[in-house]
Amino acid sequence: MKKSISRRIFEVFNVCFMLGICVVMLYPFLFVLAASLSSNEAVIRGMVGIIPQGMNFNAYDAVLHYPYIWSGYRNTIMYTVCGTAVNLILTVAGAYALSRNKTQFYGKSFFTFMITLTMFFGGGLIPTYLVIRSYGMLNTFWVMIIPGAISTWNMVVMRTFFQNIPSELEEAAIIDGCNDLGVLVRIILPLSTASLMTIGMFYAVGHWNSWFNALIYLRDYNLFPLQLWLRTIVLQSQITDVASMATEQLENAVSDTIKYATIIVAVVPILCVYPFVQKYFVKGVMVGSIKG
């Protein structure tokens, strides 16, 4: 079918509009990448765009030789892996219980109300700090995992996803002798891959980017996540010898290029993971958002 002139104009406009959005979204990342590979003089003079000027890898050499960068990487990976596992286990358990009807789960309405209430009201920073201190979690590994162990919003989305799974499948499994746990593991979870991957990615990105809890609850530098060290570098515009362990390469490196190099080092791992789960995003979020 021959396209009309108005249709062609509309398509050209759409292409130009989307290209403009891509440029706006990609430019900051490309600028940081180019600045991290440029000379200090070029960065200070504002000569860097999306192409490195005076290309060198001195900033990366300095960052990768800084001991706390590697400990930060290790801690962040541990927080992300363990935290995401705990998040998914608790979210699935809560969502599955809330997705049952009232005859299967007595008091469902009450618990749903109490859980939903936490989306709108919280205790605040000081009461939360006092609670965490009373449980002896200050300056421990678990303070980065337990306080944010479950997201009410994610649990509601997953509950809705579970409710959309045909009940006939569960009834057939029960007739075959499955209990509730068997139904969840053998029927519900295999059919919920999209939702699990999507919500798991949300949890993982949240843990990877988390720094505020570490700033408030941690005092041991060996427990600091990567993002907290990144925050220190960005705010101070230089890497200081916090624990008297700075290397000679670090002391002689240029602060601006180190700042940009650290940003790239921190963001690249999560960017490498995203393409593998991106295909699940639209399906997982849209299906989970349909009211059952």
Describe this structure in words.
Helix content is 68%, strand content 0%. The protein is an all-alpha fold and 292 residues long. The chain has 2 domains: 1-56, no CATH class; 57-289, MetI-like (MetI-like fold, Orthogonal Bundle), CATH 1.10.3720.10.
Summarize the structure.
With 292 residues, the chain is an all-alpha fold. It has helices spanning 5-36, 40-44, 58-64, 67-99, 108-117, 125-134, 152-163, 167-175, 180-188, 193-208, 212-217, 226-236, 248-252, 255-289.
Helix content: 55-70%
The coarse overall form would be globular
> Do you know the CATH topology of the largest domain?
MetI-like fold
What is the H/E string? Answer: HHHHHHHHHHHHHH
| Corresponding CATH architecture of the largest domain | Orthogonal Bundle
The overall strand count is 0
Describe this protein with a few key phrases:
292 residues; mainly alpha; MetI-like fold; 14 helices; 68% helix; globular
List the SSEs and their pairings.
Blueprint: H1 5-36, H2 40-44, H3 58-64, H4 67-99, H5 108-117, H6 125-134, H7 152-163, H8 167-175, H9 180-188, H10 193-208, H11 212-217, H12 226-236, H13 248-252, H14 255-289
Helix pairs in contact: 1-14, 3-14, 4-7, 4-10, 4-12, 7-14, 8-9, 10-14, 12-14
